[in-house]
Amino acid sequence: MKIENTKAQMRKGVLEFCILSILKNGEAYTSDILDTLKDAKMLVVEGTIYPLLTRLKNAGLLAYRWEESTSGPPRKYYELTETGALFLTELNTTWSDLQQAVNRVTSEKK
Predict the structure, then answer these.
(1) Nearest in space to 77 (alpha carbons), one of 31, 20, 15
(2) Per-residue model confidence as pLDDT tens digits over 8-52
(3) d(CA 54, CA 63)
(4) What percent of the residues of the chain are helix, what percent strand, and what percent coil, each to the nearest 5?
Protein backbone atom coordinates (compact mmCIF):
# COMPACT_ATOMS: atom_id res chain seq x y z
CA MET A 1 0.00 0.00 0.00
CA LYS A 2 1.38 3.43 -0.92
CA ILE A 3 1.30 6.13 1.73
CA GLU A 4 0.73 8.86 -0.88
CA ASN A 5 -2.63 7.32 -1.82
CA THR A 6 -3.75 7.32 1.81
CA LYS A 7 -2.59 10.91 2.30
CA ALA A 8 -4.48 12.03 -0.82
CA GLN A 9 -7.67 10.34 0.38
CA MET A 10 -7.37 12.01 3.78
CA ARG A 11 -6.97 15.44 2.14
CA LYS A 12 -9.94 14.85 -0.16
CA GLY A 13 -12.07 13.95 2.84
CA VAL A 14 -11.61 17.38 4.42
CA LEU A 15 -11.41 19.54 1.33
CA GLU A 16 -15.06 20.65 1.35
CA PHE A 17 -14.72 21.59 5.03
CA CYS A 18 -11.58 23.62 4.27
CA ILE A 19 -13.19 25.47 1.35
CA LEU A 20 -16.26 26.39 3.39
CA SER A 21 -13.98 27.51 6.22
CA ILE A 22 -12.00 29.76 3.87
CA LEU A 23 -15.21 31.40 2.69
CA LYS A 24 -16.57 32.03 6.21
CA ASN A 25 -14.58 35.28 6.25
CA GLY A 26 -16.07 36.58 3.01
CA GLU A 27 -16.11 36.00 -0.70
CA ALA A 28 -13.08 34.76 -2.60
CA TYR A 29 -11.92 34.15 -6.14
CA THR A 30 -10.99 30.57 -7.04
CA SER A 31 -7.27 31.30 -7.26
CA ASP A 32 -7.41 32.86 -3.78
CA ILE A 33 -9.02 29.70 -2.44
CA LEU A 34 -6.35 27.59 -4.13
CA ASP A 35 -3.55 29.79 -2.76
CA THR A 36 -4.92 29.51 0.78
CA LEU A 37 -5.15 25.73 0.48
CA LYS A 38 -1.63 25.48 -0.95
CA ASP A 39 -0.23 27.76 1.78
CA ALA A 40 -1.73 25.33 4.30
CA LYS A 41 0.00 22.42 2.50
CA MET A 42 -3.29 21.06 1.15
CA LEU A 43 -2.11 19.75 -2.20
CA VAL A 44 -4.90 20.62 -4.59
CA VAL A 45 -5.08 21.33 -8.31
CA GLU A 46 -7.53 23.41 -10.31
CA GLY A 47 -9.03 20.29 -11.85
CA THR A 48 -10.17 19.24 -8.39
CA ILE A 49 -11.42 22.55 -7.07
CA TYR A 50 -13.74 23.65 -9.90
CA PRO A 51 -16.02 20.58 -9.80
CA LEU A 52 -16.07 20.78 -6.00
CA LEU A 53 -17.10 24.45 -6.03
CA THR A 54 -19.84 23.61 -8.53
CA ARG A 55 -21.08 20.76 -6.34
CA LEU A 56 -21.14 23.01 -3.25
CA LYS A 57 -23.00 25.69 -5.23
CA ASN A 58 -25.53 23.16 -6.54
CA ALA A 59 -26.09 21.95 -2.97
CA GLY A 60 -27.01 25.52 -1.98
CA LEU A 61 -23.96 25.98 0.25
CA LEU A 62 -22.26 28.57 -1.96
CA ALA A 63 -23.34 31.42 -4.19
CA TYR A 64 -21.26 33.35 -6.66
CA ARG A 65 -21.14 36.62 -8.51
CA TRP A 66 -19.28 37.70 -11.62
CA GLU A 67 -16.93 40.66 -11.58
CA GLU A 68 -15.30 42.21 -14.62
CA SER A 69 -11.52 42.04 -14.68
CA THR A 70 -9.16 44.56 -16.26
CA SER A 71 -6.60 41.81 -16.91
CA GLY A 72 -8.69 39.08 -18.51
CA PRO A 73 -12.10 37.42 -18.47
CA PRO A 74 -14.68 38.11 -15.77
CA ARG A 75 -13.98 36.49 -12.41
CA LYS A 76 -16.36 34.37 -10.39
CA TYR A 77 -16.32 35.17 -6.66
CA TYR A 78 -17.76 32.58 -4.28
CA GLU A 79 -19.37 33.17 -0.89
CA LEU A 80 -21.17 31.10 1.73
CA THR A 81 -24.93 31.11 1.69
CA GLU A 82 -26.89 31.09 4.93
CA THR A 83 -27.35 27.34 4.43
CA GLY A 84 -23.61 27.01 3.87
CA ALA A 85 -22.86 28.85 7.11
CA LEU A 86 -25.17 26.51 9.04
CA PHE A 87 -23.61 23.50 7.32
CA LEU A 88 -20.14 24.77 8.26
CA THR A 89 -21.20 25.10 11.90
CA GLU A 90 -22.26 21.44 11.86
CA LEU A 91 -18.99 20.43 10.17
CA ASN A 92 -17.00 22.30 12.82
CA THR A 93 -18.73 20.29 15.55
CA THR A 94 -18.23 17.04 13.67
CA TRP A 95 -14.57 17.87 13.03
CA SER A 96 -13.97 18.63 16.69
CA ASP A 97 -15.61 15.37 17.78
CA LEU A 98 -13.70 13.38 15.18
CA GLN A 99 -10.40 15.02 16.08
CA GLN A 100 -10.89 14.20 19.76
CA ALA A 101 -11.83 10.60 18.98
CA VAL A 102 -8.82 10.08 16.69
CA ASN A 103 -6.50 11.65 19.26
CA ARG A 104 -7.87 9.34 21.94
CA VAL A 105 -7.42 6.25 19.79
CA THR A 106 -4.00 7.13 18.42
CA SER A 107 -2.52 8.29 21.72
CA GLU A 108 -3.75 5.47 23.95
CA LYS A 109 -1.09 3.22 25.38
CA LYS A 110 -1.74 -0.46 25.30
Answers:
(1) 31
(2) 788 777 999 999 999 999 999 999 999 999 999 887 878 889 999
(3) 10
(4) 65, 15, 20
